[in-house]
């Protein structure tokens, strides 16, 4: 039995073992999309010097990617419900690669490339909108058993978080060769994922996606009318978790270089510490929850409490080792919660609407990614206390929503939608 086979919860003849290469291929999408964004974070101070831009302007290199994705992800979700998952994912990976190529070419060849780099990042965000978010409903389509779905979502979320761990190291390494090389690596990574999806992921046998727009509107209205409370809670929590994560990474990237004198690979390795803890927590959480909705709720709640507690603790000391430890524990809280939110949605929403609902969730996550760096960049000028109180307050809101609005005994029976095939 291979190492990968041991990820399953049942025996080696389960669907997990049979589809291990499909899982690897699908998991490559969040890994590569994460690399395409997060590996730029440790390079932002260097870009500020090379492009002669401010911290706020450098944060927009991250933000524009996410902003365009926010608006396009629900459209991509609907299209995947109507035409199929692979039909949306494949051209999206191509577009993401072209966006990275444009940004890299501009940085390489132009004297004043900032706005062309932003244009390339916008195009990359268009591609990301149709690739990463479609992974969640695709996993739901691939497996019949809920615990197989949960296990695979844990692998996918771990791939996402592993991308975040690898990103600062790889980004710092590539930028150490040529500062714009992280941009040019994006089309290479996108091509790898494209080939894996094309040749190793087979269309599910019952993959019939012909959702009409009229039926789509009726179904989504029905779902939200009956389950608006917990859906809204999951969406808002997802946005806050990503806001805290990317805000924390932006802050840590800045102070490591400005206050502690770390740069290059050394800085990348230090940034990877809280992300590694997030990755391990994400994998462990996804493997443990199986198909238990109560576990998903309480792991989410206590993960948020840990995150918020660590944020407040950051006020106690500015010592480097202390701060890295606090951020690592904060990463554990975020990593534990994310697979639970994914699984709550995929197990509670019928296949016909899964792409749309999970895409709205992905949009909210991207909203957090987009808002985190620029808001933290502005608040860093006002002192660390105001920033910490903001992040702690958002954590408290998330904890309240998880405790009060997510009702495991009710989520399991999402409303039956009318036939989607017309």
From TrEMBL:
PROSITE patterns: MFS, SUGAR_TRANSPORT_1, SUGAR_TRANSPORT_2. The keyword Transcription regulation does not apply. One of its GO terms (molecular function) is transmembrane transporter activity. InterPro entries: MFS, MFS_dom, MFS_Efflux_Transporters, MFS_trans_sf, Sugar_transporter_CS, Tet-R_TetA/multi-R_MdtG-like. It comes from the Bacteria. Coiled coil: none annotated. Gene3D superfamilies: MFS general substrate transporter like domains (1.20.1250.20). It is a multi-pass membrane protein. Pfam families: MFS_1. Keywords: Cell membrane, Membrane, Transmembrane, Transmembrane helix, Transport. Belongs to the major facilitator superfamily. TCR/Tet family. This is MFS transporter. The lineage of its organism: Bacteria, Bacillati, Bacillota, Bacilli, Bacillales.
């Amino acid at each position: 039995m291979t190492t990968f086979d041991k990820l399953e919860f049942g025996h080696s003849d389960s669907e997990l073992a049979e589809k291990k290469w499909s899982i690897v291929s699908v998991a490559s999408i969040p890994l590569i999309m994460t690399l395409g964004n997060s590996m730029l974070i440790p390079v932002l101070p260097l870009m500020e010097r090379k492009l002669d831009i401010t911290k706020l302007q450098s944060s927009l290199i991250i933000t524009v990617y996410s902003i365009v994705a926010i608006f396009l992800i629900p459209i991509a979700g609907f299209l995947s419900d109507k035409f199929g998952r692979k039909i949306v994912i494949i051209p999206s990976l191509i577009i993401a690669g072209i966006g990275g190529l444009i940004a890299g070419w501009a940085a390489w060849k132009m004297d004043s490339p900032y706005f062309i780099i932003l244009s390339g990042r916008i195009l990359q965000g268009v591609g990301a909108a149709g690739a990463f978010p479609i992974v969640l409903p695709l996993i739901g389509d691939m497996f019949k058993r809920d615990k197989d779905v949960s296990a695979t979502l844990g692998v996918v979320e771990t791939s996402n978080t592993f991308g975040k761990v690898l990103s600062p190291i790889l980004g710092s390494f590539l930028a150490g060769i040529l500062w714009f090389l992280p941009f040019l690596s994006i089309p290479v990574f996108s091509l790898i994922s494209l080939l894996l999806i094309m040749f190793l992921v087979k269309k599910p046998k019952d993959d019939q996606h012909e959702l009409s727009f009229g039926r789509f509107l009726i179904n989504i209205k029905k779902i939200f009318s009956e389950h608006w409370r917990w859906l809204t809670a999951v969406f808002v929590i997802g946005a806050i978790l990503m806001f805290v994560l990317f805000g924390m990474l932006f802050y840590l990237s800045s102070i490591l270089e400005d206050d502690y004198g770390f740069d290059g690979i050394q800085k990348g390795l230090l940034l990877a510490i809280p992300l590694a803890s997030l990755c391990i927590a994400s994998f462990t959480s996804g493997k443990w929850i199986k198909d238990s909705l109560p576990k998903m709720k309480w792991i989410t709640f206590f993960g948020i409490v840990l995150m918020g507690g660590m944020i407040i603790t950051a006020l106690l000391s500015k010592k480097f080792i202390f701060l890295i430890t606090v951020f690592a524990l904060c990463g554990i809280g975020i990593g534990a919660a994310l697979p639970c939110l994914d699984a709550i949605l995929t197990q509670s929403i019928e296949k016909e609407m899964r792409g749309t609902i999970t895409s709205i969730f992905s949009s909210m996550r991207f909203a957090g990614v987009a808002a985190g760096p620029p808001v933290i960049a502005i608040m860093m000028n006002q002192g660390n206390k105001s920033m910490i109180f903001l992040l702690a307050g958002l954590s408290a809101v998330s904890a309240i929503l998880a405790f009060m609005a997510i009702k495991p005994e009710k989520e399991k029976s999402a409303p039956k939608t009318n036939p989607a095939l017309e």
